[in-house]
Amino acid sequence: MVSRTIPVQAFDLVVIGGTGDLARRKILPALFKRFCAGQMSDDCRLIGAARRDLDAAQYRDFVRDALREFAGELALNEASVAGFCAHVDYVAIDARGDMGWQKLSDLVATGEAQDAVRAFYFSVGPSLFSDIAERLERFGLTDSDSRVVVEKPFGRDLETAQALNAQLAQYFDEGQIYRIDHYLGKETVQNLMAVRFGNMLFEPLWNAQYIDHIQITVAESVGVEGRGEYYERAGAMRDMVQNHLMQLLCLIAMEPPAHFDPDAVRDEKLKVIRALDGVQPHHIVRGQYTASDGALSYREDVGNERSKTESFIALKCHLNNWRWAGTPFYLRTGKRLSHRDSEITVVFKDTPHSIFGPEAGRHRNELTIQLQPNEGITLGVTIKEPGPGGMRLVDVPLDMSFAEALGPAADAPDAYERLIMDVIRGNQTLFMRNDEVEAAWAWTDPIIHGWEARGDAPKPYDAYSAGPDDAALMMRRDGRDWKGLEK
Ligand code: NAD
Q: Which amino acids bring their CB within 6 angstroms of ligand 1?
């Protein structure tokens, strides 16, 4: 099922790197699903542009294969696939040379819709951004309303991120640049904002006075999956914490923006990042998976037997502001963990006094925002265990998952579908602004420099486990437990 909506305005989406892995697995299926939902009008086009020497018919075959593999049941409908492919074109280009650019420019100029939005998805490594931006301008492909979409990694430290921002700023205004973090496109992440700011119930309690701590886990069971070369240079801190976990932290911790508009939301997120305190070395646990349960070790996966790159990180941090002073935030992410599980848990404090006596036990409200593998929000509340025999308390989940309550309306598009449509609509709310990305690196860099200077080696952990024991110990020392992964 896909949610049905009215078409957005006509657009040309040019996917530079349209034959790559990201295009195949995410971009093409996402656009196809929006086509099936009726959101692409007849004059919309998807133009693949990449190094491979293909003609349009060969690229359509490539698209068909990608949809069969990654677009699920919808791709079984031959008529839908054929209908979508009628929107598809292709031009072979060289991002570093002039080959193909004039042809691409001519093709874009011949669109049926005069006022079609032009969006250029840079689905290539960041080292090509500047070359591509320069050619887009030189060959007259862009105007002041054109948009560019860029993927992570956005730099590997503050300096490289600033350089990338400066390169893009030579050719585009900030309002034209869409830095994707697909976690922000998830329905539940936006629902988190709806829950926080659309209800009277939560916001008055949303501070250090009532919240004991907040934890964010993004666990993957996969290893480095053929991306070893990139990962070896990045590690979990750069690959996940600087962007995805940081973005989730921002949405959880930010002040209510005055309006739900791009700059109002991003201003508040930026304040969160700037309020982050440095992290003490003993509040960081880095890990690296070892061979176990049929899986190779990280070092075998990346082909470097002396690697000190972390495939796991857990850390405790604090925000220096009135709302959160004294409330720790625990972040944890890693590869080859026991299962795929992304969730945010807000753990409220104990009631100030228990009228039920010590035998009733300690009960705390927990708000769990589950992002992967399923999306949903659950509030744990304490009630009386039914039956005679005195007042025994038990925690039950108050399930705020939308599927049952909302029926088909809850059948949300996936993150890439939403984000690509937001690009066409010109809505930057769910995209990272230049100053946010730079502030996130400014916080991340000293942490990385710290462990590099100390020569810290990551702690080994078994593949398909919950990570290094030290991560659990860090929590236990604080009298707390990690939620989720260990269940
Ligand atoms: P890929 O290597 O599979 O594809 C790269 C694409 O760029 C190909 O289409 C290739 O033809 C094209 N290309 C490379 N050099 C070119 C040149 N000189 N001229 C013209 N075209 C050229 O890479 P990918 O996995 O699709 O990743 C693309 C970007 O997205 C990278 O920055 C990556 O870090 C990022 N990303 C990828 C994923 C993923 O799931 N694959 C997830 C998040 C971010």
A: 17-23, 25, 50-52, 93-96, 123-126, 151-153
